[in-house]
């Protein structure tokens, strides 16, 4: 699977793929939180990548996502 440079920078695929293999198809909240902590990234990043890859539906783990638009808009000013 090809990934963008940003996705690779946020979570190296060498870390993400073993995680996916070890927990798929049961991506529990605790597994995602633990993996995010191990990667030193926000759980929403993990959820977003899992959703984009098609490993979990977009309706799952939405409570781990956070809004960032306001942060991006501030940086444009």
Number of strands: 0
3D shape:
globular
Terminal CA distance reads 36 Å
Question: Count of helical segments?
Answer: 5
| Rg of Cα set | 13 Å
Q: Percentage of helical residues?
A: 55-70%
Strand content: under 5%
- What pattern of helices and strands is seen along the backbone? HHHHH
- What class do helices, strands and sheet pairing give? mainly alpha
Oligomerization state: single chain
Give the mean pLDDT: 87
Point out poorly predicted stretches. none
Please describe the biggest sheet, giving its number of strands, its sense, and whether it closes into a barrel. none
- Count of individual domains: 1
Provide a compact summary of the structure.
61% of the residues lie in helices and 0% in strands.
Q: Can you characterise this structure?
A:
The chain is mainly α. It has one domain (5-76). Helices cover 61% and strands 0% of the residues. It has helices spanning 5-10, 13-23, 29-39, 43-53, 69-76. It is globular and about 40 Å long. The mean pLDDT is 87.
Labels describing this entry:
0% strand; 77 residues; mainly alpha
Write the layout of secondary structure elements.
Layout: H1 5-10, H2 13-23, H3 29-39, H4 43-53, H5 69-76
Helix pairs in contact: 3-4
